[in-house]
Sequence to fold (274 residues):
Amino acid sequence: MEADLRPEAREDVVERFPDVALDEFDLGRHPISLPAREVVDREHVVASGDQRVDEMRADEAGASGDDRPHALYPRRRVFVTFEGLDGSGKTTQARLLERRLAAVGREVVATREPGGTPLGEAIRQVLLHGDDVSAWAEAALFAAARAELVERVVRPALGRGADVVCDRYVDSSLAYQGIARGLGIERVLELNLEVVGGLLPDRTFLLLVDPAVAGGRSSRRPDRIEREGGDFHAALDRAYRELADRFPERIVALDGSDPVDEIAGRVWAELMPR
Fold:
C-alpha cells in the first residue's frame, strides 16, 4: 500500500484544508505532529489541544513564567482516545483514566464509538447487532455516528475546557475499514477528516493483545464484527500495529497483557507535562 495520498486525493485534500502543507497529509507524517495553531473554524486539521497562550502543550516542560516542578496531572484539557481489538482492555483503561482525571477535580466527558448520542446509539445497533452490510456502507455509518458525536459532544466539551476520553475514534475506521476491509487508509482517512472537521486527539493509546487472547476475554455474546473469523481479527491486529508505526507522534502502543494498574500508570505518565 502506498504511504502517500494518491494524486487525485491529495488535490482534493488541499482544496478542503488549504492551510495545511501538502506533505503534512502524507501518511508517514500525521497532522498531530504539526505545531499548535489557533482553531478558527472547522476547515483546519488540528489536534484538539490547540491552545491559548496561557495554556500548556503536552510536550512543554512548563508554562510560560512557571518554574514549578512538573505537575502531577495535565495542566490543560486533553482529548484522549483508546484503541485496540475487542477484549484488549481499552474500555477498562478509558474508565480508569476518566476516574483519575475526575479525582483531581477536572470535568471529564467520557464517551464511546459508535454511540454517545441518540443517533450514534441507533447506528451502533445497526452496525453491531444488525445484518451484514457492505464495507463502504459500514465505513459511512461509522463516519455518520462520529460526525454527530463530535458536533454534539466532543467539540462542546473541549470548548468549555473539559477533558474528553473516548473509547474508539478515527483510528478504528482506519484499522477496520481502511486496512482490514481493504478500502484504503487514504480514502477512509479523507472521509473521516471531513466529517470531524479535522479534529484529532492529543493522544491515542493503543492496547496490543494477541487476537486469540483478546477473543477469550469476553464472556458476553459476540456482536456482528466480533463474530468475524480469526483471519479478520489477525488482519485487525496487523492493521493497528501498522497505524502505530505510521503515526508515532500521536499513537502510544501499550502491551495489553501487562497488569491493568501498570498500563494505567503509563497512560497517566504519558499525559504529564514534559
